[in-house]
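FAQ

Q: What does a record look like?
A: Structure on top, sequence underneath. For example:
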């Protein structure tokens, strides 16, 4: 898979390193000469150019990319890169970094964004996840379909403990995608039984989150 990353700072380089280790082809684009550090990610392609310019993206052959990641520290730049990648080059998947949570509402399909990743939101979500059991934590927002990746740790006294996944009447527009149990990642089947302490990851419509949290709440909290 060919991936172009706009922004060769610490975030962009880290993403590039992970993708290269997984066998992907990576192009890093940055207009700042000081950010062109080929020796830090020697296996990547590098391009000194402004990712907001069509001529630069033509040079990058963006139409050959399967994924574009807008990872600069400037939300305006990330939005422009996302819009150009989607509308001018029909890139199948566009992922954008959100630096300021106040701008998160802009990062949607209207700007060509398929997945918006807010670092501040993700960090705060991980803090919440570490201290809360039974509370729904929003980890990531998917622009298309107004859906979120959410996590909830099932309390030991939750009413659904001991219930088969296939026997639960999940809210509409929600899907249980993963169960994390004792360090293992489980793909849930209908015959799997929910256990206290399970970390449950869902893709859910935002308007269904409260209903989902109520369903998974502890029996003591529901009283």
């Amino acid at each position: 898979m060919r991936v172009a990353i706009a922004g060769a700072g610490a975030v962009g380089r880290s993403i590039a390193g992970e993708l290269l280790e997984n066998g992907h082809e990576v192009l890093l684009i940055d207009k700042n000469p000081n950010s062109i550090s080929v020796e830090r990610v020697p296996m990547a392609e590098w391009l000194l150019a402004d990712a907001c310019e069509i001529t630069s993206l033509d040079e990058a052959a963006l139409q050959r990319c399967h994924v574009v990641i807008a990872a600069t520290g400037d939300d305006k730049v990330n939005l422009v890169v996302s819009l150009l990648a989607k509308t001018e080059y029909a890139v199948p998947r566009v992922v954008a970094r959100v630096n300021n949570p106040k701008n998160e509402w802009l990062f949607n399909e209207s700007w060509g964004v398929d997945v918006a990743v807010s670092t501040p939101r993700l960090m705060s979500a991980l803090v919440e996840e570490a201290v809360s059991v039974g509370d729904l934590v929003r980890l990531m927002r998917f622009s298309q379909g107004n859906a979120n990746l959410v996590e909830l740790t099932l309390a030991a006294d939750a009413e659904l403990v001991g219930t088969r996944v296939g026997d639960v009447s999940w809210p509409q527009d929600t899907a249980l995608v993963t169960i994390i149990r004792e360090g293992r990642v489980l793909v849930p089947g209908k015959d799997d039984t929910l256990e206290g302490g399970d970390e449950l990851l869902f893709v859910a419509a935002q308007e269904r989150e409260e209903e989902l949290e109520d369903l998974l709440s502890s029996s003591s909290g529901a009283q």
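Q: Is there anything notable about this one?
A: The chain is about 25% helix and 25% strand.
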